[in-house]
């Protein structure tokens, strides 16, 4: 190979800087990134079971897929999400070890809706400046939530973006992959008229609607350190309450009611029809309860949900009152106390509630599914305000949901 004829550095163009420009002076601190990795290492490794291959710090996370050989027809499920503007609350309070639960919950609880077990997850953090303790705190929260979900955190990336993000700003995102036996997939095709809707209590606002919430709080002039008697703590503490991660609880409920097609365990509940008792789940995120429930219903059915079966938690009442937010806007933006929904055979309703209660999940029967063409269903829809009725949602031409009554008083 012939050497290049001229290896002299090019002459400076324009005004040369007084000092050489390095990556560090450009705003990227590689050593700080390495320190953050060391601080998060133990937390990430704690999520690793025998299926994680290659350890910590590789270019790619690896997961031993031979575990899938026990499936007859394994289907992979994947989901990705972020936390939204809730990160602004974490940044304002300089508390970063809970935001990971919001990220994991938003991702793995979408996967479990189809009955899939989330196997592994990766995360991505973009920040204006790497502060090792802050980054490690975020990742520790992600890792702790992964442990709750039974999911391995196999990799991630921290990117420093000076000039694009402020030194105290960051955003987080993640993706997860899960697996479900093809014959066990949950979905609209399983739902039957007569099924009941079981609501599972949320831990608070979770991770949707914070643009509305923050606008209301700012408009009212309330500070995050304000003590709020109705909440029993400061406003900031309430707004930063982590998202409840339902994945392990939902999978346990599915195996309890439907049996386990992989292990061969039989169901604890036998339905008259012989069909699986648990029909499906709905993760209540952006769009609210009605819109997300409609996504998992088949065409031709109507789920009627009675608001009177629960009362609005204080934080939602506070947002409504401070901002004079109309009820329809609240219901299509916030979860209003219900973070996950299960649709089950009516014969399994009691067993479902007891199983969830045994795992610390407050749950109750909130509604019922009926044929949309039934006379009583048609009459109920015709008499209800238009905003109480949702037909399909988010591009899914599915079933319908009708919200009735008023929320119970506390």
Automatic annotation (TrEMBL):
The enzyme's E.C. designation: 6.3.3.1
Pathway: Purine metabolism; IMP biosynthesis via de novo pathway; 5-amino-1-(5-phospho-D-ribosyl)imidazole from N(2)-formyl-N(1)-(5-phospho-D-ribosyl)glycinamide: step 2/2
Keywords for this protein: ATP-binding, Cytoplasm, Ligase, Nucleotide-binding, Purine biosynthesis
Single GO biological process annotation from the record: 'de novo' IMP biosynthetic process
Keyword ATP-binding among record annotations: yes
Cellular compartment(s): Cytoplasm
SUPFAM superfamilies from the UniProt entry: PurM C-terminal domain-like (SSF56042), PurM N-terminal domain-like (SSF55326)
Family statement: Belongs to the AIR synthase family.
Superkingdom, natural source: Bacteria
Gene Ontology cellular component terms for the protein in this record: cytosol
Broad EC category: ligase
Catalyzed reactions per annotation: 2-formamido-N(1)-(5-O-phospho-beta-D-ribosyl)acetamidine + ATP = 5-amino-1-(5-phospho-beta-D-ribosyl)imidazole + ADP + phosphate + H(+)
Family annotation (Gene3D superfamilies): PurM-like C-terminal domain, PurM-like, N-terminal domain
The protein's name: Phosphoribosylformylglycinamidine cyclo-ligase
Keyword hit for Phosphoprotein: no
GO MF annotation, one: ATP binding
Positions of the PurM-like C-terminal domain: 192-372
NCBIfam families, A to Z: purM
Domain PurM-like N-terminal: 66-180
